[in-house]
Design a protein that fits this description.
With 470 residues, this protein is α+β, with helices and mostly antiparallel strands. The chain has a single domain, classed as Up-down Bundle (Outer membrane efflux proteins (OEP)). 64% of the residues lie in helices and 14% in strands.
Length: 470
Amino acid sequence: MTLRPPHLLLPLALTAALCGCRVVREARQIQEQGATLPGERTSSAAEAGLTAGEACSLTGLVRIALSSHPALLQARQSVEAARLQCRLIRSGRLPQLSASGGYTRATQNVSGRPTSSAMRGTWNSSLGLDLLLFDFGKLDAQERQALESLVAAEEQLRASEIDVAYAVRTAFFELHRSAELHRVANESERLYAQHLTEARAMVEVGTRRQYDATKAEVDWGNAVLDVITASNAYVTARAQLARDLGLAEYPDFSLREETLPAPADTDAASLLARARENAPALAVLRARERAASYAVDEAVAALYPDVTLSSDLTLGGRDLPLTPNFSWTMRLVQTLFDGNRRADRIRTSLTELRSARARVADAEQALFLSLVSAAAQYQSATKRLDTALLVARQAAENRDLVNEQYRVGLSSSIERTDAQVAVTRAQADVVRARYDAHAAQALLARLTGEAAAPDADGGPIATDAPQGQP
C-alpha cells in the first residue's frame, strides 16, 4: 500500500476546514458587531416605528418592546444555548473520529555500538475511531436533563415576554395617570388664579378684606407647586415608558386611551387554576423538577460500567511506502472503589430533587397570595372609583354653590378654598382609582400567564379616541 502522508492528511484537513469555515465566519461577524440583533444595542425611536405626532396604542407599544427589549434578547440566547447543549449531548452517541500525522528525525544509537550524530527521519500518521456502545442509561439521562433545561429556557423566555408586556402596560397606565393628575393640577391652578383675581377686585371695591386676597395668593402659590410636582411626575413616567420599551429616547407621540377587559372571574381558586395551567414561572420550576429527577437516573447509572469500541489505522515507517497497521479494542471500564463518591452523588441528587419539588410548592403558595392580593386590589379600586365619581360630582356642585355665596358675601374665603380643595382631591381620587384598577388588571394578566402580545383584532385591549398630552 503506497500512500504518502500528505495525501492522507490533506483530505482530512480540508474537511475540517470546510466544516468550521462558516461557523468561524459568523463568529467573526458577530465579534465585529456587524450583525447585531434588536436588543444588542439601543434602538432609536424611528427604528422601533415611533414617530412624532403619532397616536400609539398599547398593543403597538407592547409589540415594540417585545422586538427590541434587551431582556428578551438575553432570554432568546438562553434558549439557543440550551438547544445547542442538547446537540452537544446527542453527539456523544456518534462515533468520534480523529486524525494525526507527523514526521520525526532522531538518532538511531543502540547499546553496544559506537554512537553517531546521524539522524534518520520517520513518518507516522493515524486515523482513530471511538464509539460508545453502552453506558447503562447515563447518556439518556443527560439528554433528558438537557431537554428539560431547554423547556425551562423556553418557558423563561415566555415569562420574560409577559414581564416586559406587564412593564409596558404598567408604564402606559402610569403615564396616563400622570397626565390626568397634571390636567387636574392645571385646572385647579387656573381656578385659584381666577379666585385671586376676584379677591383682589373685591378688596379694591371694599367688599372684602385684604386677608381674602392674601389667602387667595397663598392658595394659588400652592396650586403652582402642585402643577410643578405633577409635571415632574409626568416627565418621569414618560422616561419610564421609554425604558420599558427598550429605548433611550421619547419622541413626542401621544397615547390612546385604552383599557384592559375586566377579569372574567376574581375567585382565588379559579385564578390559581388558570395560573397553574398557564403561568410560565411555574412551568420553569416544573421543568427543573423533572431535570432533577433525571439527574437521579444519571447518578444511578454511574454505578455501572461503560462499554466502548476503539479502532486505529496507522501508517508509519522510515521510508516510503509506509507500513499500514490496524487495531481495535473493546473496552469495559468499571470503577471499583471511589470513596463512596457515586453513592453520595445519588444522595446529593435526591436532595436536589426534593428541593426542586419544594420550590414548586413554594411558588404555588406565593402565587396564590399574589393572586388574592391583586384580585383584592382590583375589587377595591373599582369600588373606590364608583365612590370617587359620586364624591367628585357632589364636590363640584358644592364648590359652585360656595363660589356663588362668596361673590354675594355669604361664605368666607376659607370655605371657598375648602370647597376647591375637595374638588381637586375628589378628581385626583377618581384618576387614581381608575388607573389602580387598570394596574391590578395588568397584574392579574401577568400572574395568570396571559399572552404577552394579543392579536390586533379582537385582542384583550379596548381602544377609545386618542388623547393628547398635557
